[in-house]
Amino acid sequence: MPQITVDYSAGLGDRIDRPALAGALHAAAVEHVAARTAACKTRFRRADATVAGEAAADLVHVEIALLAGRTEEAKAALADAVLAALPGHIEAPEGVHLSAEVRDLEPAYRSAIA
């Protein structure tokens, strides 16, 4: 059931292999937090302006929200796996700021398929 969001700088739009990255993120969630591939949902959001420190910079930030119950160690292992996978899905990743956050969803979270 992971809700995965990938925010990325506009300049990286043509350099990210979105389908392959989504597949890698789903596989990491299955491996590290016992998610089911069919339950993984990933969306990509382009950020038109990104700044790191005081300068414009390219960045990719992945947020994975899970139902509560995973250990902090499992969530940290998933974040580490995401960081390790990112460069392999970005053309010329040198200098790109990468980050990952794995967090619990709020207890009031609900999901449905219409």
UniProtKB/TrEMBL annotation:
Listed name of the protein: Isomerase
PANTHER family referenced in this protein's UniProt entry, alphabetically: 4-HYDROXYPHENYLACETATE CATABOLISM PROTEIN
Assigned keywords, A-Z: Isomerase
InterPro entries per UniProt: 5-COMe_2-OHmuconate_Isoase, Tautomerase/MIF_sf
One GO MF term attached to the UniProt entry: isomerase activity
Superkingdom in the source lineage: Bacteria
Keyword NAD among record annotations: no
Entry annotated with the keyword Transport: no
